[in-house]
Amino acid sequence: MKADRLVELLLLLQARPRCTARELAGELEVSERTIYRDVEALGAAGVPVFAERGANGGIALSEGYRRALLQFGDEEIQALFISGSALVADLGLAGKGERALEKLRGGLSDIQRRAAESVRGRVFIDQRRWFQSDPSVERLSLLRRAVWDDRIISLQYKDREGKASDRLAEAYGLVSKAGVWYLIARTDAGFRSFRVDRMVEVRVEERRFERDLTFELEGYWREMAARMNSERPTFAAIVRIDDEDVRATLCGYYRTECVRPDDAKVVRVYFSSKNAAVRNAIAWGDSVELLEPRSARAAVARRARDMAERYSAMRLKSPSNSATKRKKRAAPAPSITR
Asked: Where are any strands of DSSP class E within 34-163?
């Protein structure tokens, strides 16, 4: 595409003080005539590019324009090139971000390029929690286009209780939190957040909406998150977690604090309720021991006794035993009279 070629041409000129049309044509695999046409297109777009004839001539950007990219510091370059493109891939843009960085790398100085290459193997960001499934790229791609085009969407949605409902909403933005994607949309009831993984069906309408220019996505999300954190009930319990996988799961889902500097296995976990603390202690079995408070520990003991009585009282019928009993109860074969 011509747009991609213009960007590559601009980055080549950014990286070198001066290039001949022949050199640029070889790099971009086009004719010299095409290079001159692209230079004219850049100039028409406001890019200060010029061509000089003669032995020392060539095509170049004005010095002030070239310096803009070269003024990036090492830490700024490192921030751009840190690995971790899962979020971009979720939105159906896998590979696009990497290609953009490759184009940007071509416009860096040698020192900056080495700084960019060094950080790629040193920092990697994984947005997913442990054992978390990948989101639907197809659905997120659809929502991304709806957000960018200011489209109205109709969706069938299930709430946390599993109750389904049909909604009509204006797609304002997408937010990813710990690998879970949310659509921020305006409905008749105002702005709402919808978990993408609870959407049963999504359809993008032909109709567009007029975006509220005062709406700011990050501010809305931070305000909503702060409100949820302040309103959410918590129940603090001290537990011992012996299994590393269980520790990763609990610490990834609940807020935790270390309470004993000499024993990292003992942590304070902020559950949503006392019942949630008891359920988790039962569910994780001997991998977790609920130490405090005593009332919760006593509740775990009562629940464990109830479960033990329930399962010890059950009499499971084995299919093989049932078949044997049926054979024993079968009628005797008729005698033969001579």
From this structure: 49-52, 58-61, 151-158
Instruction: Report whether 152 contacts 168 (CB < 8 A).
Output: yes
Q: List all residues 6 or more positions away from 286 whose beta carbon is below 8 Å from its beta carbon.
A: 242
Q: Which of 51-65, 120-134, 280-294 has the highest mean pLDDT?
A: 280-294
Given a cut of 90, whether residue 49 has pLDDT beyond it is: no
Tokens read off for 285:
């079995």
Rounded CA-CA distance 220/227 in Å is: 11
- Predicted TM-score (pTM) of the model is 0.58
| Contact indicator for 26, 32 with CB cutoff of 8 Å | no
Distance, C-alpha 169 to centroid of its chain = 23
CATH architecture of 2-69: Orthogonal Bundle (1.10)
φ/ψ of residue 314, rounded to 5: -75, 140
As a whole number, the mean pLDDT across the chain is: 81
Q: Which long-range contacts (CB under 8 A, 24 or more apart) does 201-206 make?
A: 201/155, 201/156, 202/139, 202/142, 202/143, 202/153, 202/154, 202/155, 203/153, 203/154, 203/155, 204/142, 204/145, 204/146, 204/151, 204/152, 204/153, 205/151, 205/152, 205/153, 205/154, 206/151
Domain 137-230 has CATH 2.30.30.520: yes
Single out the residue of 1, 2, 3, 24 nearest to residue 13, CA to CA: 24
**Domain-wise residue ranges, the chain:** 2-69, 72-120, 137-230, 235-313
CA–CA gap between residue 210 and residue 146 (Å, rounded): 13
Q: What is the pLDDT of residues 177-236, one digit of tens each?
A: 888 999 999 999 999 999 999 999 999 999 999 999 999 999 999 999 888 877 777 889
Q: Quick check: 335 pLDDT over 50?
A: no
For 231, the enclosing helix (H) or strand (E) is helix 217-231
* Whether the Cβ atoms of residue 94 and residue 144 lie closer than 8 Å to each other: no
Q: For 151-163, how does the pLDDT look when each residue is reduced to its tens digit (9 = 90+)?
A: 999 999 998 888 9
Amino acid at position 330, single letter: A
pLDDT tens-digit map of 5-31: 787 888 788 777 788 888 888 888 889
